[in-house]
What we know:
Elements: E1 5-6, E2 9-10, H1 16-24, E3 28-39, H2 48-52, E4 65-76, E5 80-84, H3 91-98, E6 106-111, E7 115-118, H4 131-141, H5 146-160, H6 175-187, E8 193-197, H7 205-220, E9 224-228, H8 232-238, E10 241-246, E11 249-254, H9 256-267, E12 275-276, E13 282-283, H10 289-300
Parallel strand pairs: 5-9, 5-10, 7-8, 8-9
Antiparallel strand pairs: 1-2, 3-4, 3-6, 10-11, 12-13
Helix pairs in contact: 4-5, 4-6, 5-6
GO molecular function, one term: ATP hydrolysis activity
Domain ABC transporter: 30-272
Family: Belongs to the ABC transporter superfamily.
Amino acid sequence: xxxxxxxxxxxxxxxxxxxxxxxxxxxxxxxxxxxxxxxxxxxxxxxxxxxxxxxxxxxxxxxxxxxxxxxxxxxxxxxxxxxxxxxxxxxxxxxxxxxxxxxxxxxxxxxxxxxxxxxxxxxxxxxxxxxxxxxxxxxxxxxxxxxxxxxxxxxxxxxxxxxxxxxxxxxxxxxxxxxxxxxxxxxxxxxxxxxxxxxxxxxxxxxxxxxxxxxxxxxxxxxxxxxxxxxxxxxxxxxxxxxxxxxxxxxxxxxxxxxxxxxxxxxxxxxxxxxxxxxxxxxxxxxxxxxxxxxxxxxxx
Length: 301
């Protein structure tokens, strides 16, 4: 009978282990179930102006196409998920639905917490306003209060490296300056969930490294981040999981390293060892996998 005893309690009398297991599972920040989105066919398909007018998504009509087809996945709080796929695979449509710019045709997408989205370079910028004025203006568009914008203004200016052009209208900014300011505003918003669409496609290598470091900081703060990118090194270095979309469907969801290999081998049909650069073209990159994976393990531990 003593074989069934542990610390004077029988196995059936011990509720501690199940409680510990349940407590160790982080809550879900993003939950997508059977999500589908159809465009074309003459209907507007539930764009934001339909929602503001109180209209439901239009019924699908002949002649359209499914940008997303039965997509399901979850992201835990504090998780970092990369999204990759060929042009037209539904990546940006997915981000637009998660940021509530457009509504799904079918299924549901739940995002728990305050959302900050950077889906286009300079989104929320007014061309006639200066860089300083656009920090307040674009911050409000992305969900930032005026008080939060004032509190974060020094960090935003320092990160964007536009001190000399701060009082210049942004219509005179280069694309690189636009991108630096846009990312700086998004990365310093007090949001629980951050959505980034190809934000690192423009910019030099030094600034991309700076952005990756900032993303790591956000992850360390418990933020949830979703990143669209064609840069393999960025996805492998920063992500916990990877979602591969192909023709609107989920082709892979799991480990970033396995996902990149699957994408190159089964979707792009690249030669073994082929990688993608910031421009989406194949190249061979020497990635210090041990260092990258060590950082992920250190963060998770």
